[in-house]
Amino acid sequence: MNVAPDVAFGIHPDLGVVAALAKDHPYAEQVLRQHYFRHRPDLALYVLPRDAPYNRVLQVVTGTTRLLQQSGLLVTADPRIMLAPPVPQPPGVPVREAIPAQSLTALAGELHTVTRSAEAAEVLRELLDERFGAMGELKQLVDTAATWCERLNTVEGRELGTRLRTIAGHVGFLGDRICDVEADLQDIEGLIPADAPPLSTTPARPYENRLPSYGTRAQAAVATSPHRPAALPEGASPDPRPAPPPTSPRARADPIPQFTAPRKEFSDGCQDDVDHRPHHLRSHQHR
Fold it and tell me: From CA 270, how far away is CA 278, in angstroms rounded?
C-alpha cells in the first residue's frame, strides 16, 4: 500500500532544493520557515536560497526532516540532495565525481560492529577510497584553500598558501601510513575474542609516537643547539665563549643597552679566582 508523504524534499531545476506539503500542516510550515525555507505561493513550494552552500543545505534538510519525523509526519527526500556539487577544475583535469559525502562518524560506528581484522581493514579502505574517501577530499580542500590564499597576491597570502601546501603534504603522508596499517590488518587475520568488552567501554591506550620523524621535525632533531653542539673535527677544541641568545624577529630597532652590575668586592679578604678588571687596573696583590 502506497502512503503519500506529508512532506517531500526534492530538487527543482531552477530553484534548487525545495519542499512540498501534501496538505496544510501548521507545524510543518513553522519548522520549514524556521529553517530558512521561503514559501512560493505561485508554485505551492517552500524554497531555500539558491546560493546556499551545500553543507548548509544538507544540515537544514536533515535537521528539518528529524523534527518533522519526531512529530509523527511522514517525510521523504530525493537522494540527489546528498550529492555534492562538483569542484571546478583547470582545463584538462578530470572533475571529481559528485557522490554522497562520506561520514567519518559512520565509519567509526562500523568499527563497533566488526570482529575480524579484514573487516576493520575494509573500513579503513573506505576512508582511503580514491573516488569518495574522506582523506582525498581533505587533501583537496587544503590544496584549494592554499590556492585561494595565494590569489590574495600579498606576502601574507603567499605565506599562508605555503603553510597550507605543507599541511596538504602531511595529509598525504597520513593517508600513506593508514594505508600501511590497512595492509597489515589484512595480513594478520585477527579475531576479537568473544569475551572481549565492547569497543565503546574499552579505554584507549596512552599515546605512543610510532610514526617516523620527517620534514621540519626531522631537521630540528639533527640541528645543533646550545644544549647539543655539533660534533667537532678531530683535534679541534670547543669555543669557550657562550652561544649568543637567539634574535627575535620582533626585536627593537634600537634595543635598550644592557648594563652590567659592578663586580662585587670581597670584604673578607678572600682572593677571587678571576680578575675581570682591565689589565692596567689589575694589581699583583688583592687588598
Answer: 20
Phi/psi class of residue 10: alpha, beta or left (left: φ > 0; alpha: ψ in -120 to 50)? Answer: beta
Rounded-to-integer distance, Cα 9 and Cα 19, Å: 4
Pair type for strands 7-12 and 75-77: parallel
Return the pLDDT at 213: 53
**Is the pLDDT reported for residue 154 higher than 90?**
yes
Is-contact 78 10, C-beta < 8 A?
yes
What's the predicted TM-score (pTM) here?
Answer: 0.53
| Nearest residue to 97 (alpha-carbon basis) of 133, 132, 128 | 132
Q: Which three cell numbers stand for residue 257?
A: 643597552
3-state secondary structure of 282: coil
Residues contacting residue 174 through CB under 8 Å, at least 6 positions apart: 135
CB atoms inside a 10 Å sphere around CB 64 = 23
